Amino acid sequence: MTTPDDLDLAAQQSTALGALDAADSSEALEAFYRAWLAPSGVTTRLKRGIGRLPAEQRAAFGKDVNALHTELESRFHQRREVIKTRELAARIAAEARDVTLPSRPRPAGAYHPVTLVMREVLDVFQRMGFSVFESPHVETDDYNFGLLNMPADHPARDMQDTFYLDGERLLRTHTSAGQIRAMRELGASGTKPVRVVLPGLCYRNENITTRSEIQFHQVEGLLVGRSVRMSDLKGVLLQYARLLFGPEQRVRLRGSYFPFTEPSVEVDIRCTLCAGNGCRVCKQTGWLELLGAGMVHPVVLANGGYDPAEWRGFAFGMGIERTVLQRYDIHDIRYLFGNDLRLLQQFR
Amino acid sequence: MRVSLSWLRSFVPVTLDTPALVELLTRAGLEVDAVHTVGVFDPRVCVGRVVARKALQNATHFVVDAGPEHRAVSVVSKAPNAERFDVGAAVAIALPGATIIDGHGDAFALVTVGSARVYGVQSDGVLCSERELGVGDDHSGLMPIATDAPAGTALSAVLPVPAHGEADEVLEVAILPNFARCLSMVGVAREVAALTGVEGRYDVALDELAVTPGELDAHVEATDSCRRFSTARVENVRAVPSPRWMQRRLVLAGVTVIDHLVDVTNYCMIELGQPMHGYDLARLGAPTVGLRRSRAGETARLLHQGVDEAPAALPEGTLVITAADKPVGVAGVMGGADTAIRSDTTAVLLESACFDWPAVRRSSAALKIHTDASTRFARGVDPTLSGRAIQRAVQLWREWSSPDLRVTATGDWRRAPIVEGVVGFTLEGIASLLGLEATRAELTEALARVDITVRDAPGAGLEAVVPPGRDDVTRPCDIAEEFARVTGFDRIPETMPSEALPFHTPSRRYALREGLRDALVRGGLQELLTYSLIAPDSEALLGAEAPETPRLRVLNPINVNRTSLRRTLLAGLMETLRENHRHTPDAQVFEIGVVFLPELASPYGRGLPAEKLRVSFALLGRVDRASMHGGTDRGADLFDGVAVVEHLLRALRLRGVETMADEAAPYQPGLCAALRKGDRVYGRFGVLHPEVCARFDMEGRRVVAGELDLDALLDEAGTTFKTVAPPRFPSLPIDVSMFIARAVSAGDVVATAMGAGGELLKRVEVIDEFSGAQVPDGMRSLAVRLELNAGDRSLTTAEAQAVRVQVTTALTAALQAQVRE
Question: Cβ contacts (< 8 Å) between B607 and chain A: which residues?
C-alpha cells in the first residue's frame, strides 16, 4: 500500500540512509538490500505505486524514484565494501594461531643409514662409469679364498674369521668373493675390460661388540684393462673422494697386504671432520682410512680368465658401516642391525 | 710385535722422534696400533709440587699438585727420605694408569700405578725413585727433581733420560702376513734402516761353534712339513736368573721371564725371529729327537699343563717332536712338560727348525694353542736362521750363566739346499705397473736397502736376487711393491685410465629394487636391515613352515640366536618389533633382503643355495593418530596392509595382480590374502594370528604384515607405461546396491561388473558394505559406484541406464545378487 507519506521521497531517502548506516554486518546489509533494493523492496514498490499519481506528476516522480534507487544502490555498494573489508580483517584476526603449537601427525618413513651411505658410494662410482655387479652371499671356499690366491692354510686366512656351512660352503667374508665371478661373467674369457663395483653384505665370525659385528656391508671395486696402472687407482680414488667430499680432498697410499692384490695399499683421505688439522676421529693424524686396495694379483687375473702378461687391474674394497658410524656420530655399531627404532627414526 | 725403542736403537740409529717413526712404519705397511710408555716416558708421570705433608706411623702422607686436572692428589709414600720434601718441593709423581718400573727386588718388572688405601689413607699415585722412573739405579728414596717447571709438566720434558736408563717406549706393531720377517727385532730394524736410508748393524756377531766331538742325527720322518731341522747338544749349563738387561728386554716384549736357559731361547726368538725349544737331556730319555706325524691315540703332556693333568690328546697327523719315538712336544707350537728345562737342568738339547706353515697352522688350530712360536711358524720363518739361532743361544748362555758349557754334538738336516730366489722382470714392467718412471739406478738402490740385488738377466731384462727368507717376493709385482714401499707410495702420481673401458650399464633389477625402497620410505615406512643369521626357533614362532624344512646352519655360530640362514624376513621384523614395542608402540617397518632356500637350485650352481630377494613389511599400532588438533587414534588393520601392497605394486608398475582370500600361517584366518597373477603366487599378507603376536611377546597387540617374492615381482615389473588422455567431459556416477552371498568377494563383484559394463564403464568402486537385521541370512549388502565416461562427449541418460542394466543383469546372473532399486 502506498501512502501519501511514502511518497515523500526525501523522507524515504533519509530513512534508508539511516538504515544503511546502521547495517554493520553482511547479514544486516543483506536485510537492507532486501528491504530497499530487491524486487520486493521499497523502491520497486514506489515505482509500482506510480499509477495512482496524477498523470502530470508521474514522470517527475518516476525520475525521482529512479534517482533514489541509484543513490541507494551506490551507497549500498560503498557500504558493502567497507563491511567486507572490516569483516575480512576481523576474520583474519580471529583465525590467527600460535605457530609454535605442535603439528598434525603425518606419516614419515626413513632409510636405514647403511642404505644412505651405500647409495651415496654407489652413485658416485656409477657416475664415474662403474656398473653394479652383485654376487651371492653364500660362496664356495674357492671363490672366497682359493681363487683369490688364498689356498687352504694360507696365513691371510687368519685375517678373517669365517662362518662355514660345511667344508666347502661359507658366508662370504668380503665382496672380493665376487671378483672372479665378475671377471668370468663380464670379461668374455679374458678378452674384454671390466669396470664394476660389487656391493653387498659380508659376514665375519667375530664377537658382537660396540665396534664389531657379524655382518657388515662392503663395496668392492674392480677395474681390469690392458694398461691399468697403480697411478690410475690413485687417480680414480682421488676423483671419488673429491666427488664425495669436495674438490680439496687428497688421498695418500700406505703399504699393506692382501693376498689378492700386489702391490697392496691402504688408502687414506684427508679427515673429513677436521680437514686434516687433527681431531679425535682421525686420532690427530689428519687422515682417515678410506679403504684397502691394490693391483690385482696375477694369479687372480689368471683365475678370472685373463692372461696376466696382457691384462692388469686394480681392486679396492671399503666398509660402509665405519662411515655410517663416523658420519652420524653413532658410538655403537650394534644399533645398526639391532634396529633400535629410537635411533633409526632420527633419519626421518 | 712389541718393539722396544731402546732395543731397536741397538741395531739401527733412529733419529726420528717417536711420532715420526710411527708414521714412517705405518705408511710402509707396519701399522703401529699403540705406543706403550714406561717410566719417565709415560705422559702420566709428571712434575708434582708438594702442597701438604703429614707424617703417618710408617709412611708420609702428601698432598701433591700435579697440574690443572689434578690439583690435590693424595699420595702415601714409604720412602725414607720423604721428610726432606717440604711444601713447594718438586717430586716425580706417577698418576694412576702410568707404567713404572718395580723398584723392589733384582728382577725387572713393570708396575701399573693404581689407586689404593694405604694405612687408611687414600693414595692416588706413586712418588717415584730414580729406579722406578727408569733413569737410574737408586731406589733409596724419592728422586729430587730440580726444576722450575709448573706442576703437571711431563717429567720427560724436564728430566734428562740417560741412554742406558730402563725407561722406554714400546711400539705395538701389527704384523701383516707378508711381514713375517718383522716378527723379530732384527727384522723391524732392517725395515727401519731401509725406510730411513741408514746403515743398520743387525747382524749379531757370532762365534763359530766349537763342537766336540760329533754329529747329531735327528730322525726327520715328516720331510714334507719341514725345510730345516737344526739341533745341538749343550752340556754343563746352569739355570740361573737372567741378567737384568735381558729380563727387561723380554718383559718389554711381553715375554714371561723364567731362567737364563729358557730366557735365551725366547730372547733369540724375539731378536732373530727363530723360535727354538730346549729339552732337558736327562729327562728326554734319548740322545736326540725326531719329527713325525702323530699316530691315532697318541698323547703328550704339554708345557702349559699342570703336572697332575692328563696328557693332551693329539689329533692324528699332528706334527710332533719325538724322543725314542714318543711324542714330547707339538712341533712349532709347544714343548712337553715332562722334558722341560727346570732349575736342576745341566744339559740341553736345542731344537731350532724351519717347519712349513700349513702343518703348524693345522696343529695350532686343532689344539687351539697359539704361542709366540706358532705365530711365527704360521707365517713362515726364514730357513737361514735355525743354525744362527743355535750359535746365538750358545753364545748368550756362555756369556752369563754357563761359561764352561760344551757343545758335544750338532745336527743340521735340510730338505733341500737353501738358496736365494731369482725373479725376472723388466724396468718398463715395474714402471708401467706403478705408473711411475723409474731408472735402473733408483730401482737398484731401493731394492738393495731390503737386501734384494738387481742384475742383468741372462737373456733380456733384469733379475732380482732375493734372500731366502723373503718367500713373499716371487714375481715382478712383488718387486714393484718393494720398490714403491721403500721409496714411498707418495711418489706415485694420480692419473686416470688411458684406455677405452665399459661405460656404466644400468641394471634393471637394481634400479627397480631401489625404486621400490624409495617408494616404501615415501609411503611412510621405516627401513630395517636385520641379520641374515637367525635362530630356527625364532622362525618357527611364525608357524609358517614345517620344523623339518631344510635350513642352512653355520658350523660355528657365535651364539644360539644366530645359527641359521633365514628363510623369511618376517621373523627378523617381528624380533625388531618385540625389542622395540615397549618404547615405540607404533611402528611401520619394512625390509628388502635375501632369504636362503637350500631346496631350490641356485643359478650359481656348485651346491649353493637359492638366494631369493624378498620384501617384507609389518605395521604395529596406530597408523592414524589423534593430536591436540583433533583426529582419532586408529590401529593398523587389514586394509592398511592392502594399501601397502597396492602402493608397492604401483611403484613397480605391476598390472593385473590379484588379491585373493587365502588361509595360511602366520596370518589370522579370514584376514589373510594371497597376491597372485595367473598361477604365480607372489606372497601373502594379512593380520598376524594373535598367537603369533603372543609368541613374539606382543600379546594383545595387532600386527599387519606381509612378505612378497621380490625376485618374481621384479620379473614382471614394468619400467615404463602408457598414459590415457584425461576425459574432456565429467564422468557420470551410478550407484548400485545389492544383497549378495557372503561367499562372493567384493573383488568378484567388481570384476563381474567391469566385465559386463562395456566400453563406457571406466571404473567400479565398492563404496559400502553392510550386514544387519535387514540383510537376508548368509548375505551382506554391498554398494558399488559405476563410473561412466564416453571420453569425447557427454553421455545420454539412456546410455547410462543401458550400462546399469547390463551390469545388474550380469551380477544377478553370475553372482545371484539381489539388486536393490
Answer: 140, 168-169
